[in-house]
Automatic annotation (TrEMBL):
Superkingdom assignment: Bacteria
Protein name (Swiss-Prot/TrEMBL): PA14 domain-containing protein
Protein source organism: Luteolibacter ambystomatis
Record InterPro entries: PA14/GLEYA (IPR037524)
Ranges of residues in domain PA14: 59-252
Length: 295
């Protein structure tokens, strides 16, 4: 079976998640930082929003720190993050709160425990417009998008990415990277033929490598966020260290999507999302709860 082409509408499935709580999926919660849990304005600006995300991530992903913000009553259940570029108002609509929420300065947090298909060393590969951060086994392992979710860096800035790639020196940025950014320099980026994010943010970023054992459960969180409004997109793939993959014409590997069930998105435009390997292994949802202190 050949590579699947990205950019489709996820096979007619809501790309932000399913309504069925029995879908074997991570639980997704929608937050609007522009209003409190009592529906009062917070006056949060885009700059404030980025700081809220950064403090949440760097302070241990404690979900109780978000309780003061509006939370959509509707939960969604996510088996993959494959959200090609679309209007940012699609997220409030997906969580059935479009009448209460304007489509900016929102965040979705997916949580669950996952089981890898085999014992191996892995790394997540992905990007978002605006923010994508992934934590695995209580360690943040990926942060890439227009805006960093772990540092004050603007990742759409080519000079910043040149520092991350190790091609330029900047002591202040290097200090931020060492302190909070999950990937060590030089950061690797995968670019794909016709992919619109190649120039904007360097393509997909390769996250920190981690080991996972078959049959073991690992806590996992995925954070996606839109800051100014307009359009939104998020993509998450997974790469196994030492595995052989077909190559895109650019030379980058055609990777499988990170997913918890076997269905695949509908093929679509390469400009919206890179090709993916449709035969890639499927992870499973674990049985552990992510409840407990600080959650």
């Amino acid at each position: 079976m050949g590579p699947g082409i990205g950019g489709g509408a996820s096979g007619g499935v809501n790309p932000f998640g399913l309504l069925d709580p029995n879908a074997g999926a991570m639980i997704g919660t929608f937050y609007d930082m522009k209003q409190t849990d009592k529906r009062q304005s917070t006056d949060v600006t885009p700059a404030d929003m980025v700081k809220i995300v950064r403090e949440f991530v760097n302070d241990g992903w404690r979900e109780n720190s978000l309780r003061k913000y509006y939370q959509a009553p509707q939960k969604l259940y996510q088996t993959r993050v494959f959200i090609p570029k679309m209007s940012a108002d699609a997220a409030p609509a997906a969580f059935k709160c479009e009448k209460e929420v304007q489509p900016s300065r929102w965040m979705v947090l997916y949580r669950g425990s996952v089981i890898p298909p085999k014992t191996a060393r892995y790394r997540f590969v992905g990007a978002a417009d605006d923010i994508l951060v992934v934590r695995f086994n209580r360690k943040t392992v990926l942060d890439h998008g227009w805006t960093s979710g772990t540092t004050p860096m603007t990742l759409s800035n080519e000079d910043t990415r040149a520092v991350l790639r190790g091609e330029k020196e900047n002591r202040d940025l290097e200090k931020e990277i060492r302190r909070d950014y999950p990937m060590k320099r030089p950061v690797t980026y995968y670019q794909y033929e016709g992919f619109a994010w190649n120039d904007a943010i360097g393509g997909l970023a390769v996250g920190a490598e981690f080991e996972a054992n078959a049959g073991s459960e690992y806590e996992m969180e995925i954070l996606i966020s839109e800051v100014p409004g307009g359009s939104f997109g998020a993509l998450l793939y997974v790469e196994e260290n030492g595995a052989t993959y077909q190559k895109d014409p650019t030379g980058s590997p055609i990777l499988p999507l990170f997913r918890l069930e076997g269905s695949l998105p509908t093929p679509g435009s390469k400009s919206a999302a890179p090709s993916f390997d449709p035969g890639g292994p499927v992870w499973k949802l674990g049985k552990k709860s992510l409840g407990g202190p600080g959650i």
